[in-house]
Write a structure and sequence with these properties.
Layout: E1 2-9, E2 12-20, E3 26-30, E4 35-43, E5 46-49, H1 60-63, E6 69-71, E7 77-78, E8 82-85, E9 88-91, E10 100-101, E11 114-118, E12 123-130, E13 141-150, E14 153-162, E15 166-167, E16 171-173, E17 188-191, E18 193-199, E19 205-211, E20 236-241, E21 252-255, E22 261-267, E23 271-275, E24 299-303, E25 318-319, E26 325-335
Antiparallel strand pairs: 1-2, 2-3, 3-4, 4-5, 6-16, 7-10, 8-9, 11-12, 12-13, 13-14, 14-26, 15-25, 17-21, 18-19, 18-20, 20-23, 21-22, 22-26, 23-24
Length: 337
């Protein structure tokens, strides 16, 4: 395992760990936002980069739309930046008007974490103390994120210990592209989701939940991101995983457009935010000099329901000293066979 300094943010050093597995897979992890800067896997007779990112740290603070970061304290949207807990209303910064998104402008994905590499187990343990009142949230929280490269799979264990009742919901925010082209429209996705939350025009869930059968949101059988006429389809919504599914089986599978690589996502979360980079338009080059525009990546953000803190009928995201947060995700990307 190699560790190097790649920059500075807020007066703190930004470091990167390079993990290499026995299969030849490589993952480059920065302690800025627990960010997967690059991920390479064997494909054919060479290596293929399978995530969107930048060649260096410098573009991230200005231009990254959460590329590869760990988003929180509460990922996704909180309506109008407000919620009420134990009789008190909390105001959070509105950074995706009119809502609060991914923990705010200085959320976990924009913090410099402490990094503890362990070459023996091929893992990196990241820790961060978030003080009471950070981004408007109540309570102090100690976060731990452990990333381990095991063969072609990246194993994520996310933990948080609050000192009082507070909402917590984290997501890994990888943008995947398993092919060599500029978009993901011909990737084929199977997602074990039979329902979805309905959102308004600002992408905030209304509280309604509907089935996916017979709609363009039905990915229970593999399909690409095009309509019957071949035109691109836009996706940015919360898909609810089947309640009786086997968590030992992948919640999602993606086959790359050339059939070379397959991604499998395992998670203990109840839902996945499906996003095919509808709003992405990055003005500077990314990995390998590529430009990232609309449909350039595919996000499968395993998560709790968005705005759950304001929707009492949604599964709770409240955690406490006697109910700490724990979240496990495993992403395996290997040659399709």
């Amino acid at each position: 395992m190699k560790i190097k300094r790649v920059g500075e943010f807020g007066g703190k050093p930004v470091e990167e760990a390079e993990l290499v597995s026995a299969t030849g897979a490589r993952v480059f992890l920065m302690n800025w936002g627990v960010t997967v800067r690059d991920w390479q896997v064997p494909a054919g007779h060479g290596m293929r980069q399978v995530v969107l990112g930048f060649e260096s740290f410098d573009p991230y603070p200005l231009h990254s739309p959460h590329f590869g970061s760990l988003a929180g304290r509460v990922a996704n949207r909180i309506g109008f930046g407000k919620f009420t807990l134990e009789g008190r209303t909390y105001d959070l910064p509105v950074n995706e008007a009119p809502h609060h998104l991914h923990g705010g402008p200085d959320g976990l994905g924009r913090q410099v974490w402490e990094m503890e590499p362990d070459a023996r187990t091929n893992r990196v343990r990241f820790t961060l103390h978030s003080p009471d009142g950070a981004m408007g949230y109540p309570g102090a929280v100690d976060f731990v994120a452990t990333y381990q490269l095991d063969g072609n799979a990246l194993d994520l264990t996310l933990e948080a210990m609050p000192d009082r009742v507070t909402p917590i919901s984290l997501v890994q925010h990888q943008y995947f592209n398993l092919g060599t082209g500029p978009d993901v429209l011909d990737h084929r996705l199977r997602l074990d989701a039979d329902r979805r939350t309905v959102s308004d025009e600002s992408l905030l869930p209304t509280g309604a939940i509907v089935g996916v059968e017979g709609t363009r949101f039905d990915f229970r059988h593999p399909r690409n991101f095009r309509g019957a006429d071949g035109a691109p389809l836009d996706y940015d919504l919360n898909m609810i995983l089947r309640a009786d599914r086997d968590p030992a089986e992948p919640a999602a599978e993606v086959l790359g457009p050339d059939g070379a690589l397959r991604l499998r996502l395992f998670t203990d979360r109840p839902a996945v935010q499906l996003y095919n980079a509808v709003w992405t338009d990055v003005p500077v080059p990314g990995l390998g000099g590529r430009m990232y525009g609309k449909y350039s990546g595919l996000c499968l953000e395993d998560q709790a329901y968005p705005n759950a803190v304001n929707q009492p009928e949604f599964p709770s995201i409240l955690n406490s000293p006697d109910r700490p947060y724990r979240h496990h995700c495993r992403i395996d990307i290997a040659e399709a066979g």
